[in-house]
Amino acid sequence: MKKKNITLKATKINGLPWILPAFIFVVGIIYYSIFYTFNLSTLDWNGLDPVQTRVGMSNFTKALSDWVFWKAIRNTIVFFIITFVIQNFLGFILAAILHTKVKLATVHKCLIFIPTILAPATMAPVFRLLFSPQGMLQDIFDTLHLGITVDWLSKPNSALFILMIVAVWEFTGMSFILYYAAMSQIDKEMLEASRLDGAGNFRTLWNMVLPNCKGTTVSLAMLGIIGALKTFDIPYLITTGGPNHATEFLGTYIYRQGIRQSHLGYAAAISVMLLVLAISGAILINKMNKGDEK
Amino acid sequence: MFEIRSLKSKVILQIVLLILTIPYAIPLVQMFLGSLGGKGFLNYKAVWDTGVVPIYFRNSLIISAGVILLVYIFSMTAGFGFAKLHIFGKEVFFWLILVALTLPEVILLSPLFVTFQQMHLFNTFFAVILPVAALQLPFTILLARNFNSGIPNELMEAASIDGANVFSMFWYVILPLTKPIASSIIVLTLINSWNTYLLPLLFLQSPDKQTVTLLPQYFQGEFTNDQTKILAAAVLIAIPEIIVYLLMQKNFEKGMSAGALK
């Protein structure tokens, strides 16, 4: 009886003072910015002019008929799908290999993971050189007399693809480390049983290991969608969204419109749409995940 | 995960691994070789002699330390409050914080740009520390709450029988027990705040306030596109990060994977 009272007492402590500072801090900065963005999105304003012209929804209609906006959306979708597949395939295979007894496992692990901790901003000059005619790839091609010119970053068709390679280089470490952790949880006996049934390595990997890592794949899909929508550093620093908007993303376009060209209202309208996309993406994946569990 | 019996398949697996990981080394090799082009190691001397490298490092350290401090204090207290204490409308507060989880930082650009100008926060570390911490917190609070929920209530009851008030409960029971998640939170926040680029780009205009992520751009102006020196600067930025990673490998991997699991 006495014990019960104490339990109640311990959990009846008012926790509000414990969460309030964090709550005010987060909500203060983030919600303030979101509401401010909503407000800005109905203005035609350069950020300095004392005159703010209210233009209603026209920034939104302008975006919907802006081909660069749609190009950015298309790029985001293509970027997400391709990087998601390649990056997770590599991460999964590498995790499976490094769960087997191999030589120099730690060295390989470090090689895969180091790109993840280096800032895209640090590596951008390296990639600009690597994928230019002055870079190492060109030297290798020249030595082999392949007759290929490395000018992919200046060609609209290949520039986006190069950025995807950079993103895969950067984030495979993330997929790898998550799959690696998930694989440590898998019951070894289950794999043994599958092998006794005559399943080979690849069958086991595909039929037993991959389904058991489903939670990880869903997390990585969520991270991938949000990451694709957030993409800024890599295109901004390597191609500045060019050539001719071929590598434009929502982030770089918002920056270009809002900061470079001082179209704050227009940038805010695109930000609002980006916010809606980010939240619906997260909800969608969560729903899919929960639906499958039933 | 693979079952390898014969020597032949062992060798094949090793070769496949090598082929898969070589591409990850190529940019690093290019970075190092490129930095030695032209004048060789003198490129490093030229970069170092500008005297700005330590300043940029100091600035990044100050900003990361500030962000980590805010994130640590707020995640630990809020994680404890949300998991263990009685709060009216708890889930509403929590949900309001969680919504911010998916927020791309670029959305904050225009509002903060205007507001910081009005508040004269331009070119101060606060202009970067505050938004970076606010963007990091929804996730770390979620992590801290989940971890705290796993701590048995009996431990708190025992402390309360011994006469502990809520603050000493937090200090002597919760804080020591939440060390694993705290270290993940710190590493995750360190990586994110150290690598942050957009907010410093926008809010830190003078070179004595800028962070290491802006260093390559500074040298682009300084050496008028002499690639070799820019790459030497990139190597100087990367080396401390790689060393810290190698020293704390386990912590980094744990922190990054905490960064993705819901």
Characterise this structure.
The complex is a heterodimer of chains A (294) and B (262). Chain A is mainly α. Chain A has a single domain (52-293), classed as Orthogonal Bundle (MetI-like fold). Chain A has helices spanning 2-11, 16-40, 58-64, 67-98, 105-117, 120-130, 136-143, 156-184, 188-196, 201-212, 214-230, 233-238, 250-260, 264-293, and strands spanning 43-44, 53-54. A two-stranded antiparallel sheet of chain A has the order 1-2. In chain A, helix 13 (250-260) packs antiparallel against helix 14. The relative contact order of chain A is 0.13. The model of chain A is unreliable at 1-8 (pLDDT under 50). Helix content of chain B is 74%, strand content 0%. Chain B starts with 6 loop residues before the first helix and ends with a helix. The model of chain B has no long low-confidence stretch (mean pLDDT 87). The chains are: A mainly alpha (294), B mainly alpha (262).
Give a short overview.
The complex is a heterodimer of chains A (294) and B (262). Chain A is an all-alpha fold.
Question: From the coordinates shown, what is the CATH architecture of chain A?
Answer: Orthogonal Bundle
- Greatest chain-chain interface? A-B, 107 and 101 residues
Largest sheet of chain B: none
Count, helices of chain B: 13
Named at the architecture level, the CATH assignment of chain B is Orthogonal Bundle
Q: What is the SS-derived class of chain B?
A: mainly alpha
CATH superfamily of chain B: MetI-like
Strand and helix map with partners:
The complex is a heterodimer of chains A (294) and B (262).
Chain A: H1 2-11, H2 16-40, E1 43-44, E2 53-54, H3 58-64, H4 67-98, H5 105-117, H6 120-130, H7 136-143, H8 156-184, H9 188-196, H10 201-212, H11 214-230, H12 233-238, H13 250-260, H14 264-293
Antiparallel strand pairs in A: 1-2
Chain B: H1 7-35, H2 42-49, H3 53-84, H4 90-98, H5 109-118, H6 126-149, H7 153-161, H8 166-177, H9 179-194, H10 198-203, H11 215-222, H12 227-247, H13 249-258
